Amino acid sequence: MWRATDEQLDRQVALKRAIPGEPSQYAEQLQQLRREAKLLAQLNHRNIVTLYDVLNDGDECWLVMEYVPAQSLAERGVLPAERVAELGAQVAGALAAVHAKGILHRDVKPANVLMISEHEAKLGDFGISRILAGEETVTGSSVLAGTPGYVAPEVANGSDPTAASDVFSLGSTLFAAVEGVSPVGSTTDNAFLRLRRAAQGQIAPCRKGGPLAPVLSELLRVDPAKRPTAAQAQRLLTEVAEGVAHSRRPRNATRRWLLAAGALAVVAGLAAWLVLGGQQPAARTGSLMGKARTADPCSLAASIGGLDRFGTVNVVSDEYGFDQCNVLVKVEDNKRQSDVTIQFISQTASASPLPPADNKRTFSIVRDAPGDGVCARHLLLPDHYEILIHAHRVSVPEADFCGMADVVTDSAVAVLDSGPIPPRDESRILPQSLINKSACETANSPNFPALPGIDPRTPVIGFGDWRCTWKSATDSRELKVEFARREGLLESAQGARTQIAGQPAVVDEISTEDPNTCEVEVLNLNYTAADKSTRSEVWYAYATDRDKSQAERCALAKDLATAAVTPR
Predict the structure, then answer these.
(1) DSSP H or E stretch at residue 31
(2) What is the pTM of this model?
């Protein structure tokens, strides 16, 4: 690798010579290199080192790439698990982008992950430079597609690299970032010893990864068919980076944050009870929530003009659950955004304690200490409801996320001071919408699955009865049904397509970082959102049972989904 100057564009670039291979195969391999290089050059991904050009110089072939003056992950040593998850999610996203183009990296390792800042990484040195050689030389007579310590077991056994082997290498790279060594040994071990361990599936468990460890276990599965895709890995890693290791909402990172923030309020003892200042209204009686199933969470965002100083503001009423409203704050021509979510919670479900209200208001305001990229405010109502206002930086690490949360909280307080929360515009609700249904009615169906320790008559009922959870009294078995909205199910969902009770459905065997859960999504209806995009109302069904195989868990989830779609 050389640093050079592009004299035509007056910029520094990196040059890499493609390794020559067998003369008899050179023309075919050069054609493959150019094909992959062309596809790679078309990608404009913030987490990929850009490939500018491929040059011929006689019998030599050179790659002209973006010059990135940065330390590699290998040079940074051991990092905190949350930081590794954050960087890993970016690299997984880069892999997902190139895999979608039919390109493999072939050599994901710490030295090829460049940290351009403390919170941003680029994936470089794609293996297209080795296409001409076909493989990377380890010794004079032994060849390998990859680097010892980071190659997948199937590649170590002589199979060709695949997208799944890239995912394994990503897992090995992140393992090394938290443990200090690869899952098959350190660089002080003989290279062939590390290869033999990989080939035999001798993968060390992650002991220092904390919430990252379960995800690494999935990425490092010996069987490539059981590994998540790069896109799924990105989702799992993002969820860990956002501190929601124990939530089980896989499709929507914001939703996981909401559950985590509610739990944080209990675990941390709700760091501070703070009533917002200003003139206090006269005390009111009666329910502030009004009729729970018709209360409009977006009505609490009526006075959020103060958010304009943070960026372009967009209020989205159907980002996920019927119990929430999302306020998106975008910067840099909408390229990056923060998210403030307003969510209604039943206090019996959240188990949040109710602090004493002041002598004027009948509700209390709780302000959590800011966390890593998240800031939460809780409005605790006297009628056993909570309004959780949760700000998340998403892709704007420099954002004043607590300032955003306070603007939305001020707006919500002003609405509550005026009386009950305004209702939704029911004229816009379709009769067949899930908003009119009850998730807990699922238990009335003869298709409701039987699991030891689970009593269908004793569910945990979520706000509005749009979420219902049945937990075992003796172990970790759990069934859950949830109603929500998402981007078009059939256009964007990952998993096996099927039919449930005559409705289109998707079975996602890797629904969360928890390998003991299977998720089924069933389409209720499609509709056109305010931004003209197609969105779907969906039944979500989850089955968790660590004593069963994934096939058995998915069979349970299908039965649960059938019960949800066809209750009695």
Answers:
(1) helix 26-42
(2) 0.52
